[in-house]
Amino acid sequence: MIRWKEIDDALGAVVSAALGAAELPAGRIRDDVKAPLVRRSYRIDVGQTDGMGTDDYAETGCDIEIYFYPADGTRPRDELNAAADAIRTALREGVTVQDVVLIPEDDITCDADGETLAVMLRLTWIETAEETGEFMEEMVYG
After folding, report:
1. For residues 109-126, average pLDDT
2. Which residue, among 114, 21, 8, 20, has the nearest Cα to 66 in the 3D structure?
3. Mind listing the pLDDT tens digit for each residue in 2-61?
4. CB of 46 within 8 A of CB of 111?
5. CB distance 4 to 11 below 8 Å
6. Residues 6+ apart with CB under 8 A from 63
7. Which residues pair with residue 64 across a beta bridge?
8. Over the stretch 59-108, which tens digit does the pLDDT of each residue have?
9. Sign, Cα dihedral of 12, 18, 20, 22
10. Statement: residue 125 has pLDDT above 90
11. C-alpha closest to that of 19 among 77, 75, 66, 63
12. What is d(CA 93, CA 95) in angstroms, rounded to the nearest whole number?
C-alpha cells in the first residue's frame, strides 16, 4: 500500500530535479511557513489518499498542491513561468513510488498570483491485494 509520505518524498525528488535542471535550484519547505519566507523555495501539500473498489482491487488517488516561491518576490513573472514549465513537464509522465507509476489524472493546473506559483494535480493509481494461496499450476491434487 502506498502511503502519503512516500508520495511526498517522490514528488520532492522530482520537483527538486526539475527546478535544478531549469537552473532554478530551490530549497524545500516542509512546514506551513507564514513568515519569514525563504525565497527561492517550494512546498508540497499531499492530500489524503482515497480509494474506491473491492478488497482485491482499488482505484486510489490523492490531490497534490505544489507552491513555488521565486527568488525575487517583486518581479517574478519569468521565473514563475520557467518553474511552471519545468514542474509541469517533469510531472506529466507520472511519479514512481514503490515501482508503481502514479499518473496525473487530468490536467496539471498552474496559477500564479503575482508572487507565488501554485501547481495543482491529482495522482491516481490502482492497488491490488496480494494474492494468497497456491496458484493452480502449483496445486497438488489428491
Report:
1. 91
2. 8
3. 888 999 999 999 999 999 999 999 999 877 666 677 889 999 999 877 766 666 677 888
4. no
5. no
6. 46, 47, 120, 121, 122
7. 46, 121
8. 888 999 999 999 987 778 899 999 999 999 999 989 999 988 998 988 99
9. negative
10. no
11. 66
12. 7
Per the listing, cell 491434487 goes with 141
The three grid cell numbers given for residue 14, joined into one nine-digit string = 522530482
> How many other CB atoms are found less than 10 A from the CB of residue 63?
15
SS (H, E, C) the chain: CCCHHHHHHHHHHHHHHHHHHCCCCCEEECCCCCCCCCCCEEEEEECCCEEEECCCEEEEEEEEEEEEECCCCCCCHHHHHHHHHHHHHHHHCCEEECCEEEEECCCCEEEECCCCEEEEEEEEEEEECCCCCCCHHHCCCC
